[in-house]
Amino acid sequence: MARVAIVTGGTRGIGEAISLALQKTGLTVAATYAGNAERAEAFAARTGIAVYQWDVADYDACQAGCAKVAADLGDVDIVVNNAGITRDGTILKLSYDDWKAVIDTNLGGCFNMAKAVFPGMRTRKWGRIVNIGSINGQAGQYGQVNYAAAKSGIHGFTKALAQEGARAGVTVNAIAPGYIDTDMVAAVPADVLEKIVAKIPVGRLGQASEIARGVVFLCSEEGGFVTGSTLSINGGQHMY
Ligand code: CAA
């Protein structure tokens, strides 16, 4: 039977590309989404990928959601923690709510999902967790203390959990995308984005499929000796 993978935020942007790429390798994929049901249903109809709505920042919702996926599709062997939001602003303007929403979703979501699936992976002696970090968690970014802190936290979380999973066949890795051609990056003011792209050595934004390719490798059988690593896919913008 095909292994089951959950991709959080898996119906749009980088997550959509990851869901499709994992499906292509023969996995059974479940994609979660936070709010846009119409778009998610259209995605499900187009791709045949099952979609589930829950908020990754909600611990109980992750427990219930992962149990539902397991009941519907089978034991969950792979989780890609991709769901993330931005609430950009300099610290003078950033509210506590902007801080908390980004930390709870981007970093808290990784914890909540791992709590739901890690015990089963350990018991079955096989698992893959891939956390989507960011170049801005490695290098920082003006106007993103919340996002950079959450993404930087993901990189530490990955290395710690990797140590807990290693003996049980559960690998935990991160990918740190640079600026990728998605709605999230399109929301950056054009003049700011232009300056950012000018600093990318390959001279362009990345494609979501270029991140998905890395996820496929980390989730594969052959990726079993790779754990606790961060794969930077950023066009050379930050060499870490
Ligand atoms: N370093 C130093 N100073 C900077 C700066 C920088 N990088 N960027 C701007 N400034 C300065 C400006 O020159 C300006 O100075 P003056 O007032 O003296 O002219 C001052 O800071 C205010 O700048 P803004 O006008 O840009 O301030 P704002 O409040 O209007 O906007 C902002 C702030 C919302 C953070 C805006 O700059 C912005 O959107 N920046 C982009 C943030 C970004 O890259 N987000 C990434 C989103 S995509 C993503 O996160 C995916 C991923 O993983 C990569």
UniProtKB/TrEMBL annotation:
PROSITE patterns: ADH_SHORT
Example of a GO biological process term: poly-hydroxybutyrate biosynthetic process
Gene3D superfamilies for the chain: NAD(P)-binding Rossmann-like Domain (3.40.50.720)
One Gene Ontology cellular component annotation held by this UniProt entry: cytoplasm
Keyword terms of this UniProt record: Oxidoreductase
Domain Ketoreductase, first and last residues per copy: 3-178
Family from the record: Belongs to the short-chain dehydrogenases/reductases (SDR) family.
Name assigned to this protein: 3-oxoacyl-[acyl-carrier-protein] reductase
Lineage, broadest ranks: Bacteria, Pseudomonadati, Pseudomonadota, Alphaproteobacteria, Sphingomonadales
